[in-house]
Amino acid sequence: MSIVSKLNQTKVFKGLSEKEFSWVLYDVGNSAYTMLACSLIPIWFKSLAIGTNPGQITADQATAYYSIAISIVTIIVALMGPICGAMSDNKGKKKIWFTSTVALGVAGCILNGFAMEWIFFIVMFVLTKIFYSASQVFYDSMLADVTSEERMDEVSAYGYGWGYIGSCIPFTLALVAYVLGPDMVGAIPGKVSVILGFTITALWWLIVSVPLMKDYEQVHYVENNEHAISKSFTKIFHTVKHIAVHDKKVFWFLLAFFLYIDGVGTIIDNCINIGTDLNLDTVGQVVCLLATQVVAFGGSLLFARLSRKYSTVNLLLVCIVGYFFVCLYALTLHSLVGFAILAFGVGCFQGSIQSLSRSYFTKIIPPENSAEYFGLYDIFSKGASFLGSAVIAWVKLAGGTINIAVAAQAIFFFFGFIFLKIADKKEGARA
Question: What is the pTM assigned to this prediction?
Fold first, then answer.
């Protein structure tokens, strides 16, 4: 049976084959943790860390330590990307590594809820985030194995779209646990509230990941390499050199991606900080973020349909322009209503710009080295967050407002737009 016939199986859901549907489900699972990490986890950490008791710290220290933890995760994940990619490209290894990182991430998420001290809490958060990010490298590289090239845009968009809407289910339950906790209603103890939030998220993440663990088959691979770890960075160096010299299409796309995805990631990571700096209601912010998931679901599915008619590059350019104006709108932000409008704008393009980037990159790279290339892709994705964070820090230290700091992210989308236009005109090595 040919590869194409294997991929074009009987459709089981919304036009997706069984393997495509299993792949999409993992986005539904891990998105629940993403939502928790950008909303309730910072709140729980500060509740545990800030105080006057021995071992507790000030609010400024808590913010600084949490930022340091995010930076540590970013560096480790960026360094792990090439290793994960090189190892999982070997025949029969991708499913093993994917399953292992998911299991460790789920276990870490559950243990995070039982942390009694802020130091253990932040350590477990870092470890869980690392395993979560590593699983994403393997997961992204599976796209070439579960679908055909002409369906990549649509399947990738379904992943993000259903991921956003699916994450609302466990997050709503976690939010109810938070509201019932001591910060709001006070009906249940704080520790019970936190444990419930983490455990619900972890179990959801695990359960919806099982179909992919069961159904996935590695179609594209290289022959086993006994020295994959020791050679991974040498291999990625040669990959970068090869791309820079022989594959200008991938080269210019990665430059564009590095810039515009930095703006996307910075806005996502700082959404709660934006509202906090403006002294907005905490629960109101979280509800807005929950609504954003629904908007992102609709936006992703809309762009999935548009991908049948329009080119991936043109749709990406629309998303970049949309984000550019969202950043400029932040200059007018001062109320919860304005925050909701900003969140709506982000939701319109958030899933689409990520899914289209993933599918476009999959189309222009060699499929047999997909995990290796996605290791590089992940470096650009995760490492780029330093730029946006540095801009926000510089603006704040210079006495500027959070509004100016967010608006300054528009520069990344401006140059990302230009570099993507250049990439589109280049001939790819794969072609």
Answer: 0.74
d(CA 248, CA 238): 15
Q: Give the span between the Cα atoms of 323 and 187, in whole angstroms.
A: 41
Residue 31 in domain: yes
Q: Is residue 9 part of a domain?
A: no
Q: Rounded CA gap, 311 and 135, in Å? A: 29
Domain of 411, in residue numbers: 15-219+227-425
Please provide residue 37's backbone torsions phi and psi, each rounded to the nearest 5 degrees: -70, -30
Quote the number of domains for the chain. Answer: 1
3-state SS assignment for residue 16:
strand
Tens of pLDDT along 418-431? 999 999 888 765 65
DSSP H stretches of helix in 247-335: 248-269, 271-277, 282-306, 312-329
For residue range 63-117, what is the model confidence (pLDDT) as tens digits? 667 777 877 887 787 777 777 776 777 777 788 889 999 999 999 999 999 999 9
| Residue pair 111/257 in contact by the 8 Å Cβ criterion | no
| CA nearest neighbour of 25 among 178, 187, 146 | 146
